[in-house]
Amino acid sequence: MRIAIPIIAPTVDEARRDMDLALKQGADILELRFDYLGRQEQKPRNIKTLLNHSDLPIIYTNRHISQAGLDARAGFKGSEEEREELCQAAA
Among 19, 42, 45, 50, which is most exposed with the fewest C-beta within 10 angstroms? Predict the structure, then answer.
């Protein structure tokens, strides 16, 4: 069995902290919920920073606001074009 931990921090610094904590607690995979980052943090350079922060496998997720569920903090608030550009940068 493998354990995947979602990273749902509002800032890059908090996301890195949570990634380190997840590793210490035995995570096998991280899910980077980029849509949880604050709007000013949602930059291509931050994708690279976070994807390179850990040696664990990382699933990059950037859900559209309509797919975010009940948590008001979730869901990408920018345009679909911006969301697609960020997904391309992660790939």
Answer: 45
Amino acid at 1: M
- pLDDT tens per residue across span 3-58: 999 999 999 999 999 999 999 999 999 999 999 999 999 999 999 999 999 999 99
> What pairing do the DSSP bridges indicate for beta strands 58-61 and 4-7?
unpaired
Side-chain-side CA neighbours of residue 88 (13 Å): 6
C-alpha pair distances (Å), 52 with each of 19, 41, 45, 64, 81? 11, 16, 11, 24, 24
Q: d(Cα 1, Cα 60) in Å, to the nearest integer?
A: 21
- The domains of the chain, with CATH numbers, are 4-90 (3.20.20.70)
